[in-house]
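Example record

The entry below shows one chain as it appears in the dataset: sequence first, then C-alpha cells.
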Amino acid sequence: MICKVRSSAQTELIDITAKIRDTVKSADIGQGICMLYVPHTTAAITINESADPSVKDDILMILNKIIPWKAGYRHLEGNSPAHIKSVLVGASELVAVENNRLVLGTWQGIFFCEFDGPRNRKVHVNFI
C-alpha cells in the first residue's frame, strides 16, 4: 500500500500517524508488524513525540544547524544536506500491530521527514 504525502517546505516533519492508522485499519491484519519505507534519497521517516509541535521544530532546528545548506558540498544537484539528513534519520520504521491498531506510546507519532521540498512523496506501507 502507498501513503501519499505532500510537503510544503524545504525541510519539515509531517505527522502521518492518522494516515498510517487508517491504512492499518483498512488492511485488517489483526496482529503483526507494519513496515514503513520511504523510497526517496532526500526524505526519511521517524517516530517521535507528536503531542508538542515544538519537538519537531527543535529536531529540524538542530538538523539544519549541524547540516547547513551551504558548506562547500560537491554534489552538483545542490541538495547534499538533504541526502545527509536522510541517511541520519533513516528510510524505514517498524511498528507493532495488535488488534488491528498501531502500537505506539502515548506521545508518539509517525513523521515523514522532508529534507528537499516541497514535493509530492510517498511512503510504502507493508505488513508482516
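Notes for this example: Residues 54 and 119 are 23 Å apart (CA to CA). The chain has one domain: 2-127.
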